[in-house]
């Protein structure tokens, strides 16, 4: 025991590096998630006495993870209030008239949105849009998804709040005594990288595959469209209005037909005036259906008892079991519809919509139903052996009347932090308070918008970085590297830091790499007597602008799955883009920094 204690006393720095090496090996092997590895690594430092209790818990006072969490909530509020969806609808409406120009507008929009929002929800939103744009323009979708993702990631490098990585690095740098970064301090260098990346995409597009995805379908597997019907009530204020003047229809709500008196019409219906009992047959995603349900202008769906309203009770989702006795029969004849006071407000079927109308749709196994009903009726449905996965729908209606509050809150964060009136962390937390008290988003939805895995990873890697510093491991590494770098030109340090961070981030979690390398980079700059700021900016962008592997950045993985790409597809286009973007960013830092 005394021997072990003596070893810990003499070789603290070396033991810290050994633990770090084991963590890197674990990151590369990916048998456990990066978060688990980071937490276990921090625990190892604590158990060996290389990190004391006070220092371990001090990482929770770091503002960077809290700022990241607040930005997740603000992004969630923009989604919840329908701001992001409205932008998507405008893009698709534009694409119908000018499909090729719409591609350029989407690229610009992706860059701008990603500069101020977490780019993960931006990419999630844009994936189904790219599938639709591929249909409108005739371009293979695989030639659109990777470029869209690349531009979104580069857009995240334009501001301090564009990626969680930037905030992590800035937070650690401030703790190390550096002057805090402003929201636009990295914009000039990010623009250089974005411009180079876009040019590279245009020149190297021939390297992208053109075969169709084999697994994802029309929407990239991210959106569920339902068939539903909008029923005009007897006392509706909409009676007498032209259908085309309702302002309801968008890419999220597509008019398919008009059902009147048992007859279904598909053509020339926009000029028709609504009558009592008319049914508008539409295709809509789940959120649009819930928004229409709460609007009160129409009653939705079908019910055996016409007095059953879609606005009553709870909405649940349920899948029709292959053993259901009504397989092949009309949806209106399904037994529970007559036995319970419920209303079916939508039906989803993989690959295509059923029809010709909701009531006449023939039931198939695995059809997914949206059902509104009382609590007693919902309990009965849960006991139905022919329905699978009966649960309360997680889809919520947009709160469009709160959209201006969510946009104003995000704009205030950007403006206040840009003018150095309030720190970005404080501004983001205050904005979260505003959107919660104004009910732009419910508390449970706000907390669900936070990626807890990312926050735990950040806290754990902050603890690892602090342990390495206290154990002397950082000083030891700097001592090894300094003699090699003293003979190198000062300008080359930016390139070395950038491409070292890039290489590690292609294999490991970019947040983990950023948290780990920030204190090392600052210590190295101090040892060499150079300004650490350009090196830190190089680290920020190098750790995020990773395009050569599906695991290089979290949005890469989303696109990889949605587009049914091969690993080699990313390597083929990503390696040259990595090099071109890196050279542009580093050159801008050397010349302008």
From TrEMBL:
Compartmental location: Membrane
Keyword Ligase: no
Protein name: TrkA-C
Recorded topology in the membrane: Multi-pass membrane protein
Superkingdom of origin: Bacteria
Pfam families assigned to the protein according to its UniProt record, in alphabetical order: CitMHS, TrkA_C
Record Gene3D superfamilies: Regulator of K+ conductance, C-terminal domain
Main localization category: membrane
